[in-house]
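User: Hello! My lab partner asked me to get a predicted holo structure for this protein. The small molecule is fe (ii) ion, SMILES included with the sequence. Please write out the structure tokens.
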Amino acid sequence: MNDEMRRRAGEAWAFRARVERDAERRFARLSAAISAFDPDSPVPGLLRRAAEDEHRHAGLCAELSLSYGQPIDGLTDDPMIAPRSLGPRQAVLYEVVAACCITETESVSTLATLLAAEVEPPVERVLREIARDEVVHGRIGWAHLAREAALHDVSFLSAWIPSMLSGTVDDGLFSGADAESETETDELLRHGVLPHSRKRETFVRTLEEVVFPGLEKFDIDAAPARGWLAARRSS
Ligand SMILES: [Fe+2]
Ligand SMILES: [Fe+2]
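Assistant: Hello! Below are the structure tokens for the protein in complex with fe (ii) ion.
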């Protein structure tokens, strides 16, 4: 593989290692927050286990990124991503929906897309191990949402889904041409990197087929989120 492809693979795995580490801390914090207001919920225990999974994933991703010559930088902070206008319990729900129902669900699709391609054995092992856990992490989000929806009106989330989505995607996802040639696309996939066009395709399909219908089951109107998506796809 040439230097440019090696660099892209290294950066992609280093980025993933950071995302995993962020998820570890977020899940640990959310676990404590939920047990304070809902001590009978199974969710805090599941989130604690998820935090341990993310710790392991971060290590696996860091090892791979190093194997491509890319070291991992230091820890960043653990920002609460919910808007300040929300009460504490609503803020937790916002974070759980953003981190689990959206991000983890998207992650499962990304991993499945990568695993459908021909992947180098060491990369495949890591992808499989992570994919197995992320499926569970997505379900934790839906379980918490179901629990909250049974007690409170959760329709306020509808207006916030666009900002969750904006926080999930990197700026270039909907802009920029698909720069990769077919050969480069195959090579990136082999090293566990989703090329630009596939990334956008996978993101959109997952929203339309899994995330939006999932939210609508809890009477969270997905129209603002669909509008957000339509605006980006036409730009
Ligand atoms: Fe993970
Ligand atoms: Fe996860």
